[in-house]
Amino acid sequence: MSQIAYTRIDQLPETFPVFPLTSVVLFPGGILPLNVFEPRYLNMVDDCMAGDGMIGMIQPTGGERHHPDLADVGTLGRIAQYGETNDGRYLISLEGICRFAIAEELPFERPYREVRADWSGYSHDLTQADATGGVDRDEILFELKRYLKRNDLKADWDTMEDVPEATLINALCTSCPFSPVEKQALLEAGTLKSRAETLIALFHLSSTNNGDGSWQN
Description:
Number of helices: 6
CATH class of the largest domain: Mainly Beta
Order of helices and strands: EEHEEEEEEHHHHH
Helix content: 25-40%
CATH superfamily of the largest domain: LON domain-like
Low-confidence stretches: 210-217
CATH topology of the largest domain: Archaeosine Trna-guanine Transglycosylase, Chain: A, domain 4
Radius of gyration: 18 Å
Structural class: alpha+beta
Shape: globular
Number of strands: 8
Distance between the termini: 52 Å
Mean pLDDT: 89
Largest sheet: 5 strands, mixed, barrel
């Protein structure tokens, strides 16, 4: 696929297909591996590979299983890696480019769904990927340790100590088992700093939950 460095909204497509998946959120600058096996989405990947390689990741919010309602905000991703398995699945990785709001859903002309994007409010995703000023890395790691201990989870601390703040924040938002609503809140946080603050708050809330519906002060 083309290695374009996207720095302006006018470089992005006006319309593109969307892939609705519950609890799966792609962040700008992040990498999301996907195992694609449903026929309509295999068709979608084929069409994307023949075109600009762009797919919008978005969460469903209810409605019919085969045609769910969609969240207001998702993230456009570019197919960065592509492979096929012997049983006909596609293994792809999406690189997060920019968040979008759905301006409208296009008429249903293909097996998969397509939308027209509203990029207003998200142009900074293209220019501030490293804008982590004010992010408290030590507090993130402190609350993460409490969260992991509380939920009997493990982490590769050596790797986390070395990665940039933006990579760390987005990787934790993607990999931690938050609810769909919580993941959507992380996605819709305006900046990396506010996303980090939301992440810390979610870690803290989980760590202070007694597990029986009550809360510690």
